[in-house]
Protein 1
Amino acid sequence: MTDTQTADKVGSVDDLLVLVRRVADQARPGEELEVYASRGVETDVRAYDGEIEQLSSASSAGVGIRVVSSLRQGFAYAGTLDEAAITETLAEARDNATFATPDEHLGLARPDNVAPAALDLWDEALGSLPTSAKVEMALDLERRVRGGDPRVRQVDAADYGDVAAEAAIATSTGITATARRTICSLSVSAIAGEGTDSQTGVGFSAGRGPGDIDAERAATDAIERATRMIGATKVKSGRCVVVLDSRVTSTLLSVISSALSGEAVTKGRSIFAGRVGEEVACPLVTLVDDPTDARAFGASTHDAEGLACRRNALVDAGVLRGFVFDTTAARRAGTVSTASAVRGGYATTPVAGCRALLLSPGSLDADEILAQVGEGFFVQSVTGVHSGVNPVSGDFSVGAEGLMIRGGVLAEPVREGTIASTLQRMLHEIVYVGRDVEWLPGLAAGQTLAVDGMVLSGA
Amino acid sequence: MSDAASGSALVESAVVGRVLDAALGRGAEFAEVFVEDRRGTSASLDDGRVEELSSGRDRGAGVRVVVGETTGYAHTADLSEAGLLVAAEAASAVARDGTGTRTVALSPSVAPRPYDVTIFPEDVEKARKIELLERADDAARSAGSAVTQVSAGYGDSRRRILVANSDGVFVTDDQVRSRFAVSCVAVGDTGMQTGFESAAFTVGFELFDTVDVEEVASAAARRALAKLSARPAPSGEVPIVLASGSGGILFHEACGHGLEADHIAKDASVYVGQVGSLVASPLVTLVDDGTIGREWGTFAVDDEGHEARRNVLIEDGVLTDYMWDYLRARQEGRHSSGNGRRQSYRDLPMVRMTNTFLVDGDADPEELLAQTPTGVYVAKLGGGQVNTTTGDFVFGTVEAYLIENGRLTEPLRDANLIGNGPEVLRRIDAVANDFATSPGTCGKDGQSVPVGTGQPTLRITGVTIGGTAGD
C-alpha cells in the first residue's frame, strides 16, 4: 500500500480495526496475541527570512505484534501494513518469544468493563486545511516575531506542524479498541540582542486544530523570553527560593512521573517504592493523572493495551496514594492495571506511564506568587534534564536561566546558572502552587511553582 | 545471505533516474532520492529475566526537491516505481510554477566500507545474543551484594542506504552497528544510586571478540556502588579534570553544535565569523572524523551521498572550518564536508557531527592530576545540551570524585556542570596523551543519530558545578 493511500485513509480507523482483529484471531491454543497498528500523517513547514525554507509532508504506518506463550514474551514490528510483512512479523514475534525467561506475571490485558470516556480529540478542520494555509501560518508567525520588537535580530526557526494519528489494537484475550487524535502547533525561536549580546526565547501555541492556535501569543512569548534575557550575567552561588515557570513545572512533573511508574516501583527503581500511605510531599501537593480530561494533550480514550483510560489519584495532600500500572507490572505488584500502558509507537512494547498529570491548582497566580516570595530566582528555562536529574537516586541538578526576583517582582536576568536539590526535598519544600494551569504538549500540565531551599550555582 | 543482500540494489538505477526526472519536472534545481532498508534486533534483560527479544524492519524512500531557498520533502514506504513517483510529485509541489525537462545521468558506485564486518548480526543465533545478557547480569550482581537491580540491553542494526541525486550521484552504503549496555541500581544507607556503561561500535557481532560484556557490567555496577558513599557535589566554580574518554561530549556541546553550518548561516552560533580566530586554548585541536574504522559515528557515505571525511575544526586553538551538509555547502559554493545525516528516510538531512574529538596533547595524565591541588575529577559524563546562540552548555556527571592535594578522595553525587563554550575552551590549561573514545546518541531537531566522542585527560581551570554542598 502506498502512503498516499495511507493519507487518504487516516480518519477512518475501521480498516485498521479489521486488520488487527484478523491477525489477533490467528492465536494458537495456549498463546496470547496482541496486534497494534497505527497510521499517521504529518505536515511540517519552516519559514525563514520571509520564505519557506522547508515543506515536508510525511506519512507512516506500521504494525507491532506481541506474543505471550508459555509465560514468555516476544515482539516484532514492521513499518508497513503490507500483508506479507505482517505474516512475517507474526512468525518473527513467535520465534522471539521462545528466547525469553518464563515470567508468571506476563500477560495481556483483559476487558475490565470500564467504559471509555467520551472524548473528542479529533478536529475535522485539520483535514480540510490546504497546504497553502499552513504555509501562510508559518510565514505570518515569522513576520510577527521579526516585526514585533526592534531588538529581535534573527528568527532561526518559525514552524507550523500538524499530526493526525490513529491506532487500533486487538488481542486474543478479548480486547478491541481504537484511538485517534489530531494536534496542530506553532513554534518559534527568536534571537534578540544588543551589541555582542544575543539571547534566545521560544514561544509556541498548540491545540487540536487550526482554530486552537494563536500566532500572536506564540510570537509575543518568544519575543518576551528573548528580550528580557538581554544583558544577562552570572550570579553568585547561594541557597534561595526558586519560582518555576509553568513550562519548567511541566518538565519537573514529567521527571517525577517516571518514579510513579508501577514498573519502576516493582523493580526497586523508584524513590517512591514502598512508600504508599506516607507523606512524600508537603500538603499543597495533590497530583492526579487523568487522561479522560480532554484538555490534556495526552488525553486518550484507551491506553496502549486497549483498556479504557481512567483518572488515577497519585498524591493526595502530600500523601502517596498509588502508582500507574500496565497489566504485567500490576500482576507483579499484586494489583490490577490502572489502564496506564503507554507506547512510543508500533515499534516498541507497552510500558506503564503517565499521560495527563495535573497538580491541583492553588489560589495565587504568577505575579501574586512572585510578590509573596519577595526575593529569589525565577527560572525561565532549564537544560540538561536528561543528564542532571536521576529519578532513582532523586538527585536534581539542571542548567537554568531566568531573572532574579527582587521586591516581589522580576529583576535582572541571569544566565549560566544551575539549580540543584533532590526530588524528595523539592516535593517537601514546595511553598506555592499556582492557579495558572496551562495545558502543554507532553504528559503534564504546567503552572507556576515556588520551591524553597534550592541551591543556585553561578560564579 | 549477507553478501547477496549487500550486493542487490534497493531500487534499480533506471527507476531512480525516472523518479529524479519527475522530481525535477516542475523546474527544481536539485532533486534527491534517499532509500533506506533497516533491520534490527534488540534484547533486554531486567530484574533477572530476559524480558523480551524484539526484531523489526523499516524501509522506505524520501524525495527531496530544492527550488531557490525552499526545500520540499515527501516520503513513502512503497518502493515501487509508482510509489516513488507519488513521493516525487508531492515533494516537487514546492516548485509550483516552473516547468522543465532534465534527464539525470547516474553513475552507480558502492562506497568502500571504512571497516570490515566479519560477522553480520542476522547470521548469529538469537540464543547467543541472549547469552550475553545473562553473563552481564551475573557479573553485575557478583560485583557486590548492594547491587539490587540490573538491566542489560543488546542491540544490532543493519542499515542499507541508496542516495541518488540530480548531480549524477548514485551511491550505496551498508552500515552495521552493534551495541551493549548495562545499568545497575545499588542500595545503601543513603538511598539508591545508579551506574551505567555501554559499548557501541560500527561493527557486527565480532564486537564481542574484543568487548567483554562482564567488564561492561562490572563497570556499571562499580559506578553505582561507588556513589553509595558519595557526598553532594560542590556548588560554584571549580577546576575540573576530565578523565580520558570520560566525555568528549564536552566538545560536542561546547563547540561541536556551534560549528554546524546551519546554525552559522542563521547567525545562531557564538562561532559566526570566527574562522581564523583563536577560539580556544592553543592546546585544543578538534577533529570531526567519520572515517575512523569501527567508531560509533562512522560511515562510508553520509545520508546525502557524500564520502565521510576527516575535518579539522580547530587547530592549535584557531577555528579552521565549520561542518557542512550538501545544501549549505551548495549555497556557499563549496564542498560538503560529509556531515549531512538523517535519522531515517522519514527525515530531511541536516548538518550533524560524526566522531568529534580532541587530539592528544603531551602531558602525563597522572602528573596532570597530581598538579591539580583542588577540584573535581570527572570519571564519566552522561549527556549534555547546548544553546548554540549564547554558547551556554550543560553536561552531567555520572561518576565524579573530589580532588584534594592532587589526589582523588571522596566520590560525588551526580550533578550538571554549566559553562560557556568559548570561555571553557580557553580555560583548558593541560591536555594529556591518553586519548580514548566513547559512544553517544545526538539529538537535534527531533532526530537522533549515533555519534562518537573522545578526548585525552584534560584540565579546565574553572567550570560552574551545580551541586548542593555549600562552600
Protein 2
Amino acid sequence: MDAPAIVVEGLRVRRRGEVVLRDIGFTVRRGAVTGLLGPNGCGKSTLMRSIVGVQIIESGSVTVLGLPAGGPGLRRRVGYATQEPAIYADLTVTEALRYFAAVLGTAPSDVDRVIEQTGLATSAGTLVGRLSGGQRGRANLAVALLGTPELLVLDEPTVGSDPELRDELWQLFHALAESGVTLLISSHVMDEAARCDELLLLHKGKLLAQDTPDGLRARTGVPDLEQAFLRLIKGREGASR
Amino acid sequence: MNSTITFATTRRILTQLRHDPRTVVLLIAVPSLLMTLLRYVLNSERTFNTIAPALLGIFPFTIMFLLTSITTLRERTTGTFERLMTLPIGKLDLLFGYAVAFGLLATFQVLVAAGISLTWLGLDIAGSVWTLLVIVVLDALLGTALGLFVSAFARTEFQAIQFLPIFVLPQFLLCGLIVPRGQMGWLLRALSDVLPLSYAVDALTHVTRSAAIDGTLVRNVAIIAGCAVLALLLGAATLRRRTP
C-alpha cells in the first residue's frame, strides 16, 4: 500500500483572530476521490489553502506526497483551483492556459489536452471575462490540470454548474482517479458526497468524521447522506453538552 | 530567477494590454498631449525649454506608477497571484516580468512624447537627445518599480489610487521644479535629498543646460537606477507565498 497522499496532524489555523480550524487530523488515500464536505464557512477553503501551502498555520503539520505542504518540490506535482476562478479575465482561454503552462514548464500541447478534457474547445479563443460562469469554472479547473499533477485540490469545482455539466465533471474526476491521480474536492452540496470514494465531514472548524459514503450510512443508520450528516452534528452537540 | 518564466510573464502582460487597446492609446497619447498643452499654456519657447525636460520625466513616472500599482493590485485581488504562488514561479520572475513589460511600454511612451517635444514643440536641449531619453526611460521604470512596491500596501483599487497623491505629489513639489532645491530650508532640502525624483529632475535639468557628461550626472542617473532596483527588491520582499 502506498503512503497516503496527504497527512494532516493537529492542524490549527487562526484567521483574523478567530480559530477556523481546530486540531484537525486525517489522511487522504492515493488514487481516490476524497470529498471535503460541510456547510459554507466551516473551514473547507482554509483547509485546502493549508494543503497547497498558501495558508499561515498556527500549529500542526501538513505533509503532501511525503513533503511539507507548499514546498518547492511540490509546485509541479499539486494542482489547485480556488472556488472563485483565479484566471486572467482579459486573456483568451488559450492565452491564459499558455501562460500557466509556461510557468509550469510543460509542453504547449498540454494546453490543448486540458482544453479538450474540460470541454472548452469551442470557447478556446474567447476572453475569459466573456465566458459564462460555468465555462469560467471549467477554465479555472483546466489550469489545475496542466502538467498532469499527482494531487488535485479543487475547491467547489462544480458550484454554479448545471446538472449535465456537473455529471460530466464527476466523470472526469473519476477517470483521473482511475489513472492514479489523487483528488480532494470540496462541496457544500451533500448529494455530491455519494459520488466520492471517501468523505471528510467538516463542521465549525472541526473534523466530524472520515468515512466512506456506505460506512457513514451504516454508522448512522440513515440512507440519505444529508440526514446522516445532520445526525452526526446532533450527536456531536449532544455529546458535548 | 528563471528567464523563461520572466519572459512568459512579460508576454502575458503585453497580451493582456493588447486586448485593451483603449488603455494603450491613452498611455501613449497622454504624456504627448500634456507636453503640447504645457507648450501652449506657457506660450514661450524659452520657459518651455527650461521646464519641459523635467516634466518629460515626471509625466511618464506618474502614469507608470498608477498603471503598475493598479495592475499588480488586481493580480492580488483576483486570486491569480495566490495561484502563481502555488506554482514554480519565483517572486522576482514575476516582478521582473512586470518591470520588463511596463518598461517596454514606458520606452514607447517616452519616445513619442520626446519626439513630439523635440520636433513639433520646438524643445531645444544643450545635451544629447540620447542622454535625455535614457534618463526619462529610467524615470518611467522608477515609477513602475515604486508602483509595484506600494501596491503591496493597498487592499482595494481606491486605496491604490490614493497612493498617487501620497507618493508622487510630494516628490513633485520637492523635486526642484517649482522652487530650486538650493533655495529650500534645511528640512525640505533633506526631504528632497531622500526622494528619488529630485535626482531625476537634477539630471534632466543638467541635460537641458549642458552637453557635458560629468560625474554629477552619472551619479544622479545611478541613483535613479539604484532606487528602481531597490523598489523592485522591496516589492519582492512584500510578496508572500503564505498569507493569513
